[in-house]
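Progress report, Aim 2. The chain analyzed during this reporting quarter is listed below.
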Amino acid sequence: MKKPIFYMVFLLGFGCFLGLNPPASAGKKPQYLIKFATVAPEGSTWVKQIRSVDQTLRKESGGRLGLRIYAGGIAGDELDVLKKIRIDQIQCAAFSGVGFGKILPMVRVLDLPYLFKNDQEVDKVHQALFSFFAEKFQKKGFKLLAWTEVGNANIFSKKAVRNLDDLTGLKIWAWAGDPIAKETFVTMGVNPIPLAITDVNTALNTGMIDTVYAPPLGALALQWHTKLSFMMALPLVHSTGAILISTRYYSKLPPDLATLLQKTMKSAMADLTQTLRHQREEAIQVIQDSGITVIPVPSEEAREPFYRTHTKVARELTHKIYPEELLLRVYKILNRPGS
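Predicted structure tokens for the chain:
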């Protein structure tokens, strides 16, 4: 999986693929123009919010600071963007698990399947561990500006999936390069088919795959739902996203602009998270209206096999991707006994 299993997302809001500079980029070029990349398509809620950030930065800095936005994957996928940041072709980007997992693998603990039961748990862990991860990213050459919402990823399929046995025989896509996605599906008894996100539509059309996972907004934006028949209401994972800027570039910003950038980005991403969570419910309704059958969340007893998947995956990846003490710290924040 070249992107976080549970990244997906950054499929988050999604619209059509286009995009470079926002209308706000017209006029005098800012002294500090940050090249910002995201795979979220132009026209999506996500990119609209980033364009709003650009406008705020230009206004509040008196035109000294702004963004040049490369949307819709025009700068490449997350791993391509990471390479470009390292050679200063891009300075800042929105990453999901696979992208920031290449920088700091331990953060992928947040992308374990069936880890979070609700949005409140997500927010609690993100808030509690922000400073911890910010310090770790700093040592890797990146400034963590803000967490951002990728959201809950659900399983979409041509055949109804109500339990783990129903996964047998399905041709499930996994984001190429994502060890968590691979381990999750293998634990569920399926050998996933790794592909870049840009290859998913073709693979669905040809029958190479018949099952994907994505936030409902992402499935709509990428039109994956038109090729599938069912959606599991039980989220497979909550995909964490982050806005990162290279410390090499960030250190060049005057203190007032550095403070403005972090403050503006953090506030904007908090607002975006709430907006996207509201739109998630609207997206599920649109998906249902399009003819997709939404399979209700199973009873508590029926959910247990899925939650055992979390326990097995978490145990298998401990010491490989994240230290045990970090996993236990997450469980403690969630007031959940260690597994």
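The domain at 9-333 is CATH 3.40.190.170 (D-Maltodextrin-Binding Protein; domain 2). Residues 158 and 219 are 14 Å apart (CA to CA). These observations will guide the mutagenesis work planned for the next reporting period.
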